[in-house]
Design goal:
Largest sheet: 11 strands, mixed
CATH topology of the largest domain: UDP-N-acetylmuramoyl-L-alanine:D-glutamate ligase
Strand content: 15-25%
Bound molecules: ligand NAX, potassium ion
Shape: elongated
Number of strands: 18
Structural class: alpha/beta
Number of helices: 18
Helix content: 40-55%
Number of domains: 2
Radius of gyration: 25 Å
Amino acid sequence: MAGVWPVAEIRAAEDRVRAGLPEGSLMARAARAIAVQARAMLGFGYGARVLLLVGSGDNGADALYAGAQLARRGIAVQAVAADPARVDGAALAALRRAGGRLIPLERAGDADLIVDGLLGIGASGPLRGALVPLVRHASDSPAPVLAIDLPSGVDPDTGAVAGPAVRADVTVCMGALKPGLLVGAGRLHAGRLLVVDLGLHAELAGLTELAQPMIRRLDEDEIAAALLEPGPDDDKYTRGVVGVAAGSQAYPGAAQLCVGSARLGGVGAVRYAGHAAHEVVRRWPEVLVTETVAEAGRVQAWVVGPGLGSTSDAVKSLRGVLGSDVPAVVDADGLNLLVERRQLLSDRGAATVLTPHDREFERLFGPVGTDRIAAARRAAAESGAVVLLKGYATVVAEPDGHCYLNPTGTAALATAGSGDVLAGLTGSLLAAGIQPGLAAATAAYLHGAAGARAAQDGPVVASDLLPALRAELAALTT
Ligand SMILES: NC(=O)C1=CN([C@@H]2O[C@H](COP(=O)(O)OP(=O)(O)OC[C@H]3O[C@@H](n4cnc5c(N)ncnc54)[C@H](O)[C@@H]3O)[C@@H](O)[C@H]2O)[C@@H](O)CC1
Ligand SMILES: [K+]
């Protein structure tokens, strides 16, 4: 399990760990890890050329100490400083002793690797002053980029990028994951993530005295563990039945896609209620169909909304689902109908999962803004529902503030019908008995992984996600 920690908590944990160690040893550990990764990226040693971009804080000092280690191995190391008068003196002396040089940007030659040591967790606001041309230099260079702790220009807590920012191939993250590496534009800028163990995690757990970190990123093993496998005593009812109230005469495809994925989340059966019953049963003969939610019979969770439209029948379906005493996923048209009917949420006894994209979110809760985690948390607290805020990195927030940041996904998932598949899958995981926040996070993970899998074979349309989901589930559970 990977905890993700706000900068203030990481700093507090670092201070405690540092207090119990000899001076400089944390930074030495950081520098070693950076140098090892730099050499791995170079693929060769002697004669390679490395350019360090050096800021005025400890991020810059990390770069200089790592550069010193590289220079000792015969690598030609040049350093350019944002402000030469404010670089860490001891770190610069170490680089010079090892044969590295501080030069003005104009004299920087071609490099085989650029190390971004401009800003780490001390960053605040958009890049200022001399940092901007240095970041431009990195963007214009064909050399791969290793970012120390965080790509400079990315907000450590939110991932927001408000101006020029480093695009890293690899980010060597110090001690603990920061939200900015996993969410918003920051995720795109971070590239591949490696976390260096600085002994912070015990301190972080102790500081917060929480059973679970407030923000988490689930890994493959946790997803596999969340998926409940049927036992020998299970039948179709004990495994859970999911109800789908989606699609309409105008949008029968949304019903087919939503039901298509609802079949895959480990339930024993799927019930469909709506005006696309004919199309659903033609595509998926195993599904039990009715015209209305009231006629559908017992289910353990509902999905309502995809392709539902805004007719009086659509409103009836929404009321029927939210009036039930089982967990429900509300997506797409269901969310739009909720805007004028917020009472339906506050009257609920059972759990609700809302799955908005940004525009749907804005209609219900106001603008998302640059802090996607804070936005999802605010909406969850306000609505009492689990809020799954879709995006390149999907955020799932629970009403008490616990969050999951989804690590999977691909831009290829921004395609019509993709959300219908996500909603159906979330509903079936709920019906199978998984807790709402975990069900939403698991669905986002599987959906993202299925998208990436499907994208390997070419352009992705939503129907492709169904076989890819099956393959993903098989890979996880066998
Ligand atoms: N504290 C520790 O024990 C450790 C810290 N480490 C490194 O230290 C880093 C944090 O160091 P610092 O706290 O010195 O902070 P940073 O090195 O991130 O930068 C702080 C400096 O940048 C300037 N700055 C902030 N935002 C700016 C902006 N938008 N434009 C231009 N300048 C800006 C500030 O005025 C300040 O001088 C971590 O990210 C990590 O790389 C590691 O060495 C591991 C150990
Ligand atoms: K950096």
